Amino acid sequence: MFFCVTSKVHSSSPFDTSFDVPSMKFLLRRPTCSTPSMMFLLSADQNLLIEKKAKRARELYFLGLFGNGRSLFHRIKSRYALKKMTTAGMSESTMEMDPGAAFTLLLSCPDGLPRSRVYVDFGISYDRIPHPDTKLEESINEIWTLQTEKNQSLYNGKKFRYGGHTLHHADDADNKSSVCLHLGLTDYRTFVGTNLSPLWENFLVPSKDDSIYCQHSASPLGNGAIVKTADKRVLVLQRSLNVGEFPGYFVFPGGHSEPEEVGVLFHQMNKNSTEQEALNDKISQEMFEGIIREVVEEIGVPAESLSDPIFIGISRRNLNVRPTAFFFVNCSLKLDEIQQLYSRAQDGYESTQLFDVSMEELLKMSERMPGCHRGGYALYELMMKANHGDL
């Protein structure tokens, strides 16, 4: 059993939204390219207060995202017309909260799906569509240039782009279902210039169809692992201050599956159906091998200590529309062994500390996670409830 759900926390719906602020109620319309202003039924002073809080939340986010990014934020802002930060679903109290905490569950598989029930449809039809605004498209290169000037270690690697999914309900006696992930091809440069851009909302298209809503964004599909130890504890990392996204936050181990691992550098249009099917299968396998690789590299545990991953769904951070596929993995080692291995992990520089936590502690820690990883916690919680905690 699994569900395709849209569970939002502090929603940022692209449609008209009514919400309450203590002692006042108002209607907000999300700005679009053709509607550049927000419509408030508030007094001028109340409107100004909301606007200031939204602006400050946005600037704090980009300062955290890019490190000392004030100059970047204002350079981009001065050249391109930034939309005002959408505050739909936020009250006066939530304005003070982390703007990156909101998430959407795009797909939940509480029973968990093994490799044999997760398919891939890889094709150019799931690639990003360039935005018709040429100035907005030009901003992608400008932002990438600014970032590479600040950090020369940035590498424009290929990534799989999330373009949606299809659910398949089997008719056999076991009633086992499966999912097909629709994947295109993108790269890190376009990700930085669209999803991580100060202009990221301008790339969105108001639509109930998710594939249309994000069609102009790079939307690389990240991955994350809920790793449970032999002590029945869950492993959580604290990101270092030198990483590109959400430095200092708590996260699950993860990263991205890599197209290069299966020899994909570009689309080959002359493949026959048999060759395409074989490629789809290789990419599906990379989805599962990729998350094991990330756990090994970030925590340092050997691959043989990890169980076969189980796919539990896809979460998306509302801020930057950042999608992440989550998996559940058991580790046969106990914490004292894991801590020793962590000190020698290949990618240990990406984090500063490793925690093992209970379910109650994980709930509290999730409040200091990026939205995509908070969504990962929500997927894990749904899986635990479906299996009565017996995993």
UniProtKB/TrEMBL annotation:
Annotated keywords: Hydrolase, Magnesium, Metal-binding
PROSITE patterns linked to this entry: NUDIX
Domain Nudix hydrolase: 218-385
Record-linked SUPFAM superfamilies: Nudix (SSF55811)
Record InterPro entries: NUDIX_hydrolase-like_dom_sf, NUDIX_hydrolase_dom, NUDT22/NUDT9-like
Requisite cofactors: Mg(2+)
Magnesium recorded as keyword: yes
Domain of life: Eukaryota
Keyword Cell division included in the entry's annotation: no
A GO term for molecular function: GDP-mannose hydrolase activity
UniProt-recorded name of the protein: Nudix hydrolase domain-containing protein
